[in-house]
């Protein structure tokens, strides 16, 4: 199966935005068993888009495009594809009604220009867009005049904004692919998510023991992100399920305590789930992470059942006033210290009557480090019913990576405590 | 000038890593006036890489590849290109000495396999790699057998690791390009960042008035993200600077109040800059945004000079205890109401003695909505020296987009107030 991805957008070619579609779509497709063979990005220029689509249709069984379906003058994909395939555009009543409803429910007038998004090529399947106004479009190119052997291709056009594209892929495209382009043989993919262990150490632990599964066809992959390493196990063929299951058992034996979840589950979602199951509540006292833990936890639907409050106490005055940290402790040990982390966690727990309270105080950088406490130094505290513990970590990264890694360590400390 | 970029790596096609080379190189090249026409990613497979290089050489004046120059079995680019162009590989004594020195200075033995990196195609220019062992390679393909008109192309091969590629581009590739492929004319690009206005409304306002500049060659582009629309103005030629300057004047006249920054500046960075200039301080009281405003503000280096504290008051008890919201106000109006937003902002200002305090209370969803206050309803309060204002907004999006758009509206309310 040959799969090609075309990303359109002048902002990509000018390097103004990062192409997150490539990774996200390649990842989703690979996990379904459709590995992308080639990805192309071109600007919002008619001739460039046309050439890219034409070339892809000449080679691939499946072509996915992103972008160019919106209402503005640089949104050309819909028109160009219709023209290239000799299809008329017709106004789709359901899409038009959706666009009107979309604006009316937001109490805004429908801009005339947005109605162009209701035009769809003849016989195309409309992919509903609950998060925006531009629908996705899917069509089988049959006969396929671009391919030497005339073999048909599927062409799927998705809108550019990630919050529209992602649910559309999951809800509409994945089921469509499994129906119209079923894979010849079984495909099983399993991702185990770990934290607190590096990529090379993970590989040292499991690489050898999994060698004979790899030789038998298991695809073993690692994906490292700040504070997280995913281990991916995939196999094709009739025996795929058994292979992946056995490999998972070995990985769990060797990496067990580091594995916090599977597939796409984030650590914050695990925390909300565990606390909800235990009917326990949480409070947060953040200094250098600046609300990043609170933000991650509140990204999880249902967080309000467990999170009572978070305090971002950047200043010493706020640490004293909101958390009851003693002036004397701050004077004697400094704001970035074990005793202050302890008092912050205990203060947050007491103030809110939560069962658990996490605290973080450290030096995110780029400035503020000293020889004794360099940039990256951070203390993580956890006050819980049976006492308080404080961990010292060292995360000498750029500011945003520091926040990501530190919040991961704090959430993991909580996870291991409540498990 | 036709410029193409080829990124090689199976991990890209499986979606295991983000292709940061695309943005970084496209950006660097665009700022030098070389706009990338097409970017292609393929796996580390000989036939895929060869086809991509062959096709690019058939079209482009400049082809840049990334990856495939290392010592392992999946590093194929160097050998494939030499073969494709019919060039012998010769061992470069200087590169070999560099590799030996690289390992010796780290007190490690030179792995036999790394010496393959000293092989360079005949007559290629070697680009020194102070941060690794694989040199970059540059060569003029002249005559060019792949191009119908035989026009020569430049082919530049860069190593994959970003910390090797980036300094090599800046130190070696940029000067080389300016020498061997000088631009016939100038290139100017300007991005204006707006918030509070939709993409189609922005276009309705500026599309017509800019029409004659577009006809004269101005490249006008839009890039929409949650709560933000970027307007990009670019032009080539001797008159580029004047064209872009005049277009910017028109855009500023028509969209003035919506423009919060230029180029890569984020709204939170503008806020930290403005507050720092005014020696003013800020406090935050967040309910439904759950620390997202605090997290964004503290992503900005120097935020500690302006942000005194943030309170994430998810529960009613926390709103009362930490912010002094009255039980009676909560009972009478509900937590999502104008009076509660007002008391939250005023409470945060009073508690922290900050000059400004922002508050947010609303329903992020997916559950919790009522007919009178559907999911997406949000009140944003701002307490400032001369009084308190509260804005009602309606953001019926998924949870994370809701947070992004709402924090953007809150920061924008503050920006317009302190301007």
What does it look like?
Two copies of one chain form a homodimer. In chain A, about 40% of the residues lie in helices and about 25% in strands. Chain A has about 425 residues and is an alpha/beta fold. Chain A folds into three domains: about 5-180, MoaB/Mog-like domain (Molybdenum Cofactor Biosythetic Enzyme, Chain A, 3-Layer(aba) Sandwich); about 185-260, Alpha-Beta Plaits (2-Layer Sandwich); about 275-419, CinA-like (Maf protein), CATH 3.90.950. In chain A, the strands form four sheets. A six-stranded mixed β-sheet of chain A has the order 2-1-3-8-7-6, sandwiched between helices. Chain A has a five-stranded mixed β-sheet with strand order 14-13-15-16-17, sandwiched between helices. Chain A has a four-stranded antiparallel β-sheet with strand order 10-11-9-12. In chain A, strand 6 (about 125) and strand 7 form a beta hairpin. In chain A, helix 2 packs parallel to helix 6 and helix 3 crosses helix 4 (about 75-85). The model of chain A has no long low-confidence stretch (mean pLDDT about 95). At the A-B interface, helix 1, helix 2, strand 2, strand 10 and helix 11 of A face helix 1, helix 2, strand 2, helix 7 and strand 10 of B.
């Amino acid at each position: 199966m040959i799969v090609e991805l075309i990303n359109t957008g002048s902002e990509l070619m000018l390097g103004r935005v990062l192409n997150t579609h490539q990774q996200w779509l390649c990842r989703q497709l690979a996990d379904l068993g459709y590995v992308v063979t080639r990805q192309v990005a071109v600007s919002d220029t008619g001739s460039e888009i046309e050439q890219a689509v034409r070339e892809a249709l000449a080679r691939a069984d499946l072509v996915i495009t992103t972008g160019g379906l919106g209402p503005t003058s640089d949104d050309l994909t819909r028109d160009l594809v219709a023209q290239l395939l000799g299809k008329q555009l017709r106004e789709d009543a359901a899409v038009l009604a959706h666009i009107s409803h979309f604006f009316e429910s937001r109490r805004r007038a429908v801009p005339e220009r947005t109605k162009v998004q209701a035009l769809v090529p003849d016989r195309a399947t409309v992919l509903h867009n609950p998060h925006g106004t531009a629908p996705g479009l899917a069509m089988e190119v049959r006969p396929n005049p671009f391919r030497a052997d005339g073999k048909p291709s599927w062409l799927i056009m998705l809108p550019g904004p990630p919050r529209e594209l992602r649910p559309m892929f999951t809800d509409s495209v994945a089921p469509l692919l499994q129906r119209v382009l079923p894979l010849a043989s079984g495909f099983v993919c399993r991702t185990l998510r770990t934290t607190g262990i590096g990529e090379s150490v993970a590989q040292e632990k499991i690489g050898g023991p999994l060698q004979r599964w790899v030789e038998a066809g298991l695809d073993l992959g690692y994906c490292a992100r700040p504070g997280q390493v995913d281990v991916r196990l995939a196999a094709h063929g009739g025996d795929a399920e058994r292979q992946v299951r056995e490999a998972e058992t070995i990985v769990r034996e060797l990496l067990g305590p580091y594995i916090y979840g599977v597939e796409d589950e984030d650590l914050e979602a695990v925390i909300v789930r565990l606390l909800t199951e235990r009917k326990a509540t949480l409070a947060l006292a953040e200094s250098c992470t600046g609300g990043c833990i609170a933000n991650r936890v509140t990204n999880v639907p249902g967080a309000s059942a467990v999170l009572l409050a978070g305090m971002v106490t950047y200043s010493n005055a706020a640490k004293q006033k909101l958390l009851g940290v003693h002036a004397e402790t701050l004077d004697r040990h400094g704001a970035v210290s074990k005793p202050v982390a302890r008092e912050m966690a205990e203060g947050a727990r007491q103030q809110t009557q939560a069962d658990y309270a996490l605290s973080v105080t450290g030096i995110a950088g780029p400035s503020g480090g000293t020889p004794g406490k360099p940039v990256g130094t951070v203390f993580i505290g956890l006050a819980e019913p049976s006492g308080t513990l404080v961990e010292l970590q060292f995360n000498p990264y750029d500011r945003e990576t520091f926040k990501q890694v530190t919040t991961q360590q704090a959430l993991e400390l909580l996870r291991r405590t409540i498990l």
